[in-house]
Every structure is written in structure tokens, then in C-alpha cells.
Amino acid sequence: MLHLLNYIGGQLVAPHAGRYLDNPEPATGQVFSRIPDSDAHDVQQAVAAAEAALPAWRLLPAEERGRLLVRISELIERDLERLAQAESQDNGKPVSLARAVDIPRAASNFAFFGTAAQHFASETHFQEGVALNYTVRHPLGVVGCISPWNLPLYLFTWKIAPALAAGCCVVAKPSEITPYTAFLLSELCIEAGLPAGVLNIVHGTGPGAGQPIIEHPAIKAISFTGGTKTGEHIARTAAPMFKKLSLELGGKNPNLIFADCDLDEAVRTSLRSSFANQGQICLCGSRILVERSIYEPFKERFLAGVAGLTVGDPQRAESRQGALVSEAHLQKVMSYIELAQQEGGRLLAGGQRVQLEGRCAGGYFLQPTVFEGLAPDCRTNREEIFGPVVTLAPFDTEEEALTWANGTEYGLAATIWTRDLNRAHRVAHALHSGIVWINTWLHRDLRTPFGGMKNSGVGREGGVEALRFFTEPQSITVKL
Ligand code: TXE
């Protein structure tokens, strides 16, 4: 049994009250680790450590801060296999996915922001003969980073790395459902020589350890990724304290497939965008809209692809679908499968829990599931399911496709498949979506702004946007 510890003031420490939470492995249903059930007292210690570390950290030249972050990136790369195994065990995702996506992207977060800090510049506005105005961007101070369970190390580091690069000290809380790689990261930070208190990792539940972070008056900003309801609660708590907020929330992303697309590529990538990580990525496309003239051929090929997605032990190379993250989440996703049937959806594939043998007999597995025949405004097509469940629907015109696509309260990501360049841009501009991919999905460039419109969030992460978020501009004017 693994016992995880908090990382506070450069030390691995037990929670002050001595309480722990059981952490089950989704593929087996068996508890494999115990994690600190931290409370306000632990958070207070973390904030005090961060405040003590801040004066030296913010004055350290960006190059030196960057060197430490690059060192952490190298250590993540060195331990890629161990971290990939840990992520898979904790989250239920195929180890092949963690090895190819989660862990390399976590390493590149540190490498990118380690060097980005040196390229981050502020503006000068010169008024000829009158005044020189320049902007200083001060680190905000101590900030809070709260992350979810679907891409644990990847999203945790996506927040921490820019905060540290900008000269902030961090109190971070990973999801209590997937805390393992954040714990391993704390060991790597110690090995890298990150000064004590610069990064503090407090484990625990949302109400127990998250709430004291969002309420703490010394924490100047909250960077959060998670459910829309939690985001709303955080905004209600933190906004009246004038904390800066970056909220990356849910999505109900449309995937628009036009008749002139490269059908093979559209099918291949749509299988990934529907079911990668068991559909538990906020960027997954869960509403697949297909131009009527290719609806049947698309459906036929897509369903053939779905039939080939082996659900199995995440440790096995041939498994394309691992376990859902928890029993509670599995039940939630299955309740949506029931709802889709009540709403008149025709089940084209899946729909059932998968019972595996042996080691994984108690795991939370679900068949990849496809529906058609559902109206655009039904709950199945409006609410975030966050599992391996997608709907297919035909459309006749571009306008109709756009009305469907924009018809939810979310606006995170969208995918367009077409060879018509004019249409690609026209449709992209008309989509109410913070991210649009044309003939691709999940393509990543860390310089681009990442985030959603409408109820998918507030603010943007990535590149210069993240460095701006974690700094406060000050305008200084010199009369000439
Ligand atoms: O997320 P929560 P949950 C969606 C998805 C999912 C739903 C709920 O639809 O089914 O959200 O998932 C911390 N103060 N997404 O309940 O609760 C919590 O401990 C401070 C979309 O697991 O939002 C965890 O660290 N923190 C999504 C983090 O918030 C609090 C990814 C996220 O958990 C808190 C995950 C509080 N009061 C779920 N309450 C995406 N956008 O990628 C909870 N937390």
C-alpha cells in the first residue's frame, strides 16, 4: 500500500490531522494507495511556506528560474515509464496513452515555460517629446492551482509551470481521485533542487483542501480546471475577494464533417476525438454532425472502427479503452446512456458495462457507445457526459450545422472536416468555440491561447496568456 504525503516547505509531510483517504485503482476497484485528507491547517502551512519563499523566488533572474524548470522537465522525461505506469494505475487510462501523451506533455510544459520566461517582455509606449510610459509585470505572489482527474500530471503542470516561470509561488491541489503523479512530481522537485516553499502540493478533497485554498486571503489568483459547477462555486467564493480567476470548465464539443472531407482521415481522427481516454477529455468531440450525403458511409466506417476498440486492462498494449476513473463516474455516464434511450436515441454500438476477467474483474469498464436519432436540444446533446458516449446526426446545410454546433451553453472546442478552404475559415469564425481544429484534433502548440467561451470558462491558458495571468501589470509614466 502506497502512502502519499503532502509537499510543503520543501519537505514531504503527513497531513496535520493524520487523516487519509483510500484511493482505488479504476482497473481493479482495489485500493492501492492512501492519500492525505488535508484541511485548512495544512493549506495554511503551505501558504506560509510559499509566502516565505516568495521574496527570493520573484527576484531570481528568469534564466535561473527557467533552468530549474527545465531540470524538472528532464527528470520527468527520465522517469517517463514510471510516471506513465503510475498515471495509468491511478486513472485507468491505457498505459500506452499516458506514455505517448500525458507524461511527454507534462515534461514539455516545464520545458516550454522554463524557456518562455526569458522571452516574456513588457511594453513601452513612447509619446514623442512628452512622456515615456512603460509597463512592469510583477509576479502576482502566492497563487492557487487546482486540477482535475482526467489528465492528471498534464493539467497539473500546465498550471504550475507558468506560475513558477512568472515568479509566483504556488499552493497546488491535484484531484483527490488521481493524486499519484503529483506526489511523484514533488519528489522530482526536491531532486531538481527547487527552493523550499516555491511549490507546495496539498492533497485532499475539494471541500477539505480545495476550499481553504480558494478562500485564503493571501492567495491572489486561482487557476482551476474541472467541472462547470465547481467553477461556478469557485467564482462565487473568490470573485468577491477580487482574486484573479482562470477557469477551464466543461465542454460539449461538436465535430462537423462535410461531404468534401478526407473521409478516411475524418473517421480515423473522429474515433480518437470521441473515445481517447474513454472520452474523458474536455476537448473530446461528443456530438458528431455529418453532412447527409456521406452520413451512411461515415456511420458504417465509424461503427466498424468502434467495434475494433478493445476494452481491456490498461496495462496491456492491445487495450485501446481502459477503465473509467471511478465507480461514481461510471454510474454517472451509464445514467446518461439510460437517458439517451429515454429521449428516443437509437443505440448503434455499446451501451453496456464491460466485465473483464482476472485482475480487472472489479474494474470500471464501459463499452464505447454511439447513439443516433436524438434531437439537438435534448439533454443528451446538451449536457457534458464526459465518457465514451457520442451521438451521430445528419445535417443538410452549413447553417443547420452551425445552429446545432452552437446550440449548447458550452463553447470549448470544435472540429471541422472539409477540403474547402473558404468554408473551413467561414465556419471556424462562426463557431462559438474557444478552440477550433480544422482537419485535425488535439494538435498542440503551447503558444496558442487555450480556453473556452460561454460556460466553458473564463480566461485563457497557454503561452503568453498564462504568463500574463500570473503577473500584474503596473504602468509607469516618466514626463520628458
Ligand atoms: O470535478 P470537480 P468532478 C467535468 C465532468 C465531470 C464533472 C465533475 O463533466 O463529470 O466535471 O467532475 C476540486 N474548492 N469535468 O466532480 O469536482 C477537486 O478536488 C476548491 C471536466 O471530479 O470540478 C478537483 O481537484 N476545489 C473537466 C478539482 O476541483 C474544489 C475535468 C476538479 O474537480 C472544490 C474534470 C472546492 N469547493 C471534470 N470542489 C475538464 N474541464 O477537463 C472540488 N474541487
TrEMBL record:
It comes from the Bacteria. Signal peptide: none annotated. Keywords: NAD, Oxidoreductase. Residues 20-475 form the Aldehyde dehydrogenase domain. CDD domains: ALDH_F8_HMSADH (cd07093). One of its GO terms (molecular function) is aldehyde dehydrogenase [NAD(P)+] activity. InterPro entries: Ald_DH/histidinol_DH, Ald_DH_C, Ald_DH_CS_CYS, Ald_DH_CS_GLU, Ald_DH_N, Aldehyde_DH_dom. It holds the Pfam family Aldedh. Belongs to the aldehyde dehydrogenase family. This is Aldehyde dehydrogenase. It comes from Hymenobacter busanensis. The lineage of its organism: Bacteria, Pseudomonadati, Bacteroidota, Cytophagia, Cytophagales.
